[in-house]
Amino acid sequence: MNAKSIAGQLGERRARTPHSLADHWNVSDFVALTKPRVMMLAVFTALVGLSSAPVRLDPLTTLAAVLAIAAGAGAAGVLNMWYDADIDAVMSRTAMRPIPLGKISRFAALVLGLLLGGFSVVALALATNLVAAALLAGAILFYVVVYTAWLKRSTRQNIVIGGAAGALPPVIGWAAATGDIGLEPLALFLIIFLWTPPHFWALALNRTEDYAGAGVPMLPVVAGRSVTTRQILIYSGLLALGSELPWALGFAGVIYGVTVAICGALFLMLAFLLDRSIGPDRRPAHRLFVFSIFYLFALFAAFLVDHGGESFRRTRASHAGIATSVHADRLPEVARSAWRTNNPREL
């Protein structure tokens, strides 16, 4: 039984009993709408941006900012599933999502997405500042309107341009702490932006029939395997170079430098092997897809560790400076006291 027949049966089943299924939803169905794995990645990269900022927020404000960003990422996922419900129903990879199965109605998903998105933007504005809130609102709108509703169904460059939305969380995190946008979070933005095409094209290579059946013009569908693998190799090279920027510009230290060198070489090797592979073999594309997830987490974790150590050193130096200043200020007072008591040993 092929993917189309499975999707067709699911569609017929949903058509027969849409209301009865929608009346039996549970919390896990609504959680699934938020794309928890994608949300976790967005939250992690935003937290790295927030933690690397020169301004330190108090723990309560940090928690509020992270939760608001998580809600925004979840809202984008819900609205994406609401709009894409028609093509999700005919793709085997997405046919088991709550809306195609009829567990949640499209209207309920739309309401949830709008409420969650509005709440996230307002909460981030109240907890931090308007710059961060505007960036979060822009990321949600770009992902839902520009990528989901327009680019995804109209151009093979959909994932290249649309990747900008997924690359914004570290910039949002930085802005939440500082109220502005700096060069450092833009370097992190560039890494995610360059990472997105090889990551998703590696997935799409093994889902070509799915995307073709749904009418989504992913690069493997409209340009073929050889063009896609070559583009993956090119973007992997750009990613390896772009990932060096935080270290080259002095934003990160030795831990990040070593991590990016090793992971970048492995990423390039897997992309090269994929480009040299023969069509029916699905393993090279799957290996690159899986490693790409590890790659992004490893780089951002190394960046966070480097900045954590630097922050600790800055804190210690700051405390040492305060202590020295206090002792220096007290010296004249101690000297006068010793002179009055005629006890020079106190000096």
Automatic annotation (TrEMBL):
Per its record, what are the GO molecular function terms?
protoheme IX farnesyltransferase activity
Keywords carried by this UniProt record: Cell membrane, Heme biosynthesis, Membrane, Transferase, Transmembrane, Transmembrane helix
Does the keyword Transmembrane feature in the UniProt annotation?
yes
**TM regions (residue ranges):** 38-57, 63-83, 104-124, 130-150, 171-195, 247-274, 286-305
Pathway per its UniProt entry is:
Porphyrin-containing compound metabolism; heme O biosynthesis; heme O from protoheme: step 1/1
Q: What class of enzyme is it?
A: transferase
Which reactions does this protein catalyse?
heme b + (2E,6E)-farnesyl diphosphate + H2O = Fe(II)-heme o + diphosphate
Topology versus the membrane:
Multi-pass membrane protein
Cite the HAMAP family for this sequence: CyoE_CtaB (MF_00154)
Q: What else is known?
A: Carbon 2 of the heme B porphyrin ring is defined according to the Fischer nomenclature.
What the record says about family reads: Belongs to the UbiA prenyltransferase family. Protoheme IX farnesyltransferase subfamily.
* Biological function: Converts heme B (protoheme IX) to heme O by substitution of the vinyl group on carbon 2 of heme B porphyrin ring with a hydroxyethyl farnesyl side group.
Q: Mind telling me what this protein is named?
A: Protoheme IX farnesyltransferase
Natural source organism: Bradyrhizobium barranii
